[in-house]
Amino acid sequence: MRGRGLLIATVVFAALAGVIYWSNRQKAKEESAPPKDTETSPKIVSLLQPDITKVELKKKDGQDVVVEKSGGNWRITAPEAFNADQEVMTSLVASLSSLTGDSVVEQKASDLAPYGLAPPAETVVITGKGGRTKTLLIGDEVPTGGQVYAKAEGDAKIYTVASYTRGSLDKSVNDLRDKRLLTFDQGSLARVELVSKGQDLEFGKNNQGDWQILKPGPFRADGLQVEELVRKLKDAKMDLSGSEDDRKKAAAAFASAAPVATAKVTDSSATQELQLRKAKSGDYYAKSSAVEGVWKATSELGDGVNKTVDDFRNKKIFDFGFDDPNRIDIHDGAKSYDFVRAGDKWFADGKELDTIGIQSFIDKLREIGAAKFVDSGFATPGIDIRVISKDNKRTEKALFSKQGADYVAKRDNETTLYQVDGKTVEELETAAGAVKPQAAAKK
């Protein structure tokens, strides 16, 4: 038995020795091998994006386009002078500044014709720091598909790049042109004027940066509605797909169409104007002071500017919005409620309140608003509510007067009268009465 055990041990030892020998030999082989090329995507163009000041797109069967950077903005200088779409140009320059290939198909090409590079389908000349240029040649599609041949002038190598890279560089004047009808800076927008439906409206921002109605007000503005108007004006674009004849027809249609609205926007640098008209066919046409010509407009823009002052007025009674108030005081006939928040908890008469009950009441208070605006009907108030919010810096007070089945509300120190649905007020009263102290925890 002892001899058999010794034999097994000898066999195991020999096997382990063999494994160690093979492992050491393989490691030595790997260490002696030349280092692998870790650059999986060979660089074709490598420039710092901020250094690029000019891009020339030259097509074999098309119109050359030149775009230059001046004062931090891109502008088309050929074949005609136009403002460029800054976002599109930023994307284009980002693609060019660090262009990599998928592979190298030939290290030193003597004949470029088989690759569609003599002449190339497209030539891109990039001007960088110090006026130095880098020229990129784009050729035919690789037979297997999904890639095209490319070459940098001065580099003998032929590369393959993804087909979408060629697509990102194959841009026409219309692709690169700024298509906005109004080119204002939304970040510095300070004033918006709108003449629509016989009303002259004007919106401005207060010291807190909130929109207010200046004309025919002053009124509280629904900031979301004003921002929606600004968005529609900013998104109004030229349709460059039509022919020159189509644009002449648009100008004739605009001349005979009925005026819908005129909008003016004022940012930190200038005031721009947009006129919108509607033809008998139902089509909208726009004319802007920022760009030449008359352009067909969308019905979305037409509906967005064809509004009255009431469409932009704030119908909510209270402005605390999504913030939790710091204190709420209610006097409803013989009933009174005083709710005070400390941290995340609410208290009344020194007792912590049930979270669900107080939150339900606050939600109803937050949403209470006018069904419409009225000119009269406010008499003796039966309910008054005071809301303190914004870290005790803002105080709002509203009075509610019963008028038939509904109520007429009036905010303190304001003349606007809000007609509020009677059922909404009754639900608010019920929610206030349903707020109870927090149940004691069971031992």
What is the number of beta strands? Answer: 28
Number of helices: 9
How far apart, in Å, are the first and last alpha carbons?
73 Å
* Low-pLDDT segments, ≥5 res: 6-12, 25-39
User: Kindly state the mean pLDDT as a whole number?
Assistant: 90
Q: What would you report as the Rg, rounded to the nearest angstrom?
A: 36 Å
Description:
This protein has nine helices and 28 strands. It is an alpha+beta fold and 443 residues long. Strand 3 (65-70) and strand 4 form a beta hairpin. It has three domains: 43-176, 2-Layer Sandwich (Dna Ligase, domain 1), CATH 3.30.1490; 186-311, no CATH class; 327-433, no CATH class. The strands form four sheets. It has a nine-stranded antiparallel beta sheet. Strands 23-22-21-20-25-26-27-28-24 form a nine-stranded antiparallel beta sheet, with helices on one face. The chain has an eight-stranded antiparallel beta sheet with strand order 15-14-13-12-16-17-18-19, sandwiched between helices. It has helices at residues 2-32, 86-97, 163-169, 173-176, 223-235, 244-256, 299-305, 355-367, 422-433; strands at 43-46, 54-59, 65-70, 73-78, 82-83, 98-100, 103-106, 122-127, 133-141, 147-152, 158-162, 191-196, 199-205, 211-215, 219-220, 258-266, 271-278, 284-288, 294-297, 327-332, 335-342, 345-348, 351-352, 372-374, 383-389, 394-403, 406-411, 417-420. It is 25% helix and 35% strand.
Task: Provide a short characterization of the protein structure.
The chain has nine helices and 28 strands. With 443 residues, the protein is of the alpha+beta class. It folds into three domains: 134 residues, Dna Ligase, domain 1, CATH 3.30.1490; 126 residues, no CATH class; 107 residues, no CATH class.
